[in-house]
């Protein structure tokens, strides 16, 4: 009778052995992004958050470009051509530092660059993508409007032809990177349907006032876009798509990154709670030795690593060309909702210290309130899944 194989030791940081699913290149990319975030973001992010600004955004973008994190899942034009799983791992590590940093990368790569890569002309790709991949040009994505968020089909921004030019008028709201962008991908209603435009932000009539007084995503640039008779040439329109399917396709790609990123924020809070529970003493021993605290940690670990497994599964499906938008909604709905609950539970483990910026918990918790809303609210993703399950449309 053969001897039983020797089991690997239990790893509290990877209790399910998920790292076994990763190859050497996956691990190298993850470790590169994790090291960058540890060196450049974590020492500064509490101060940035408290001040409500991201003062080094242009330099951070160039650094992210140098490590291949911008548009990393795209191919050609200076992009890394990474797998969906590798991109997801990067999103997890970035959001473990701060949701604002992951949002910078997501909007740059999965929205602005993805729109140009997927729907742009060859000239537009050559004009914008290499500089965006390098972080020399920052992009933003203008879809949401002051009165139209969950219902983008009702957008009012309008583009009309004037000779060989287009003239755009309208407003966009809650636009990440807006006031520092060199190009804005703007979606507008036209006589032929909804079209996308690559709008250089130095055009007369374009302005992007920054939105202040935020209590979430404070280490992030968030702006309004104002288009007042902004004239662009005919070659600014993205020729590859007409209709709402264009921006929705971009949003699905970006939501996939959120599925991973939310687990990064959750992991940061979970790790803070475990470390605190092992060192904080009450009633003569560490609080991690009490049953109620261990129950909290166990439940947090279960939801965290279930969420990471779900993200891995969706990533493998995307790499195989089999990921459906409904499945992305499944992941975004579950992982952001569970990440918020993990953060809230971690706050209870830390007690009063949980609200201090000395620890990452409250910062992640407030950031995730924005992540829960943007790129599809809980209710919208519930209705996407409800329609897929029943075949009945409950949106209207």
Average pLDDT: 96
Strands, total number = 11
Q: And the CATH topology of the largest domain?
A: Butyryl-CoA Dehydrogenase, subunit A, domain 3
The CATH superfamily of the largest domain bears the name Butyryl-CoA Dehydrogenase, subunit A, domain 3
Straight-line distance between termini: 66 Å
Strand content: 5-15%
Widest sheet, order of strands: 4-5-9-8
Low confidence ranges: none
Any idea what the CATH architecture of the largest domain is?
Answer: Up-down Bundle
Oligomerization category of the chains in this entry: single chain
Gross morphology is globular
The sequence of SSEs as H and E is: HHHEEHHHEEEEEEEHEEHHHH
Structural class: alpha+beta
CATH first level of the largest domain: Mainly Alpha
| Tally of separate helices | 11
Q: Gyration radius, to the nearest Å? A: 22 Å
What features would you highlight for this structure?
50% helix, Butyryl-Coa Dehydrogenase, subunit A, domain 1, transit peptide, four-stranded antiparallel sheet, FAD, flavoprotein, globular, Butyryl-CoA Dehydrogenase, subunit A, domain 3, 11 helices, Butyryl-CoA Dehydrogenase, subunit A, domain 2, three-stranded mixed sheet, 3 domains, fatty-acyl-CoA binding, flavin adenine dinucleotide binding, 396 residues, alpha+beta
Q: Can you put this structure into words, describing what you see?
A:
The chain is α+β, with helices and mostly antiparallel strands and 396 residues long. It has three domains: 18-133, Acyl-CoA dehydrogenase/oxidase, N-terminal domain (Butyryl-Coa Dehydrogenase, subunit A, domain 1); 139-236, Butyryl-CoA Dehydrogenase, subunit A, domain 2; 245-390, Up-down Bundle (Butyryl-CoA Dehydrogenase, subunit A, domain 3). The protein has helices at 24-40, 45-51, 57-66, 84-97, 99-119, 122-133, 245-279, 291-319, 325-350, 361-373, 378-390, and strands at residues 75-76, 79-80, 139-142, 158-162, 165-176, 183-190, 193-200, 206-207, 222-233, 281-282, 285-286. It has a four-stranded antiparallel sheet, covered by helices on one side. Helix 4 runs antiparallel to helix 5 and helix 8 runs antiparallel to helix 9. The model has no long low-confidence stretch (mean pLDDT 96). This is Acyl-CoA dehydrogenase. Residues 140-230 form the Acyl-CoA oxidase/dehydrogenase middle domain. Keywords: FAD, Flavoprotein, Oxidoreductase, Transit peptide. Residues 24-136 form the Acyl-CoA dehydrogenase/oxidase N-terminal domain.
